[in-house]
Each structure stands twice: as C-alpha cells, then as structure tokens.
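Running this now, will post back.
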Amino acid sequence: MLRGARLSNTVSLLRRGILGGARLSAEPVRHRALDLLGDLALPGAPLPAHVTARRPQHALNQAFVRQLLEQRDALVPVEPG
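Update: finished.
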C-alpha cells in the first residue's frame, strides 16, 4: 500500500483492536488529543475554554481556530500571572 510501511512502523485499527507498532495503550486516542492541543495552540495565546471534541482531525481543528480568530469578541486577551 504505502512505500516503506511495515507493521513495526504503522498502526492499523481493526474492530478487534490495534495491529502493528502501537507503543502505548490507547495510542490513537492520545495522538488525536495531542494533535488537537497543538492545533488550538497555533494562535499563540491561551484559550481559556473547555473544549469537547468528537473525532477531531487537523482540518476541522484548524477550521475551528480560524473561525475563532475571525470573531473579534471570541478571544479576549488575558494578562499573564
């Protein structure tokens, strides 16, 4: 399928579980959560909010951040400390 892809360096999600190179339990979930945190950090300012995401992915996360930045009253500057 993909050049260089092997079970040791890829993860396949099956109905019964994970096949391949997962290093941690729930690694795909952890990966998605870290991707979301990274995407929400792109504006470079704290986001004082509670975020709930269902099936997050980079394109949707970044579209959400773009919408926040387009709304002037959505983000309020916070003084450090």
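Residues 17-70 form one domain. More later if anyone needs it.
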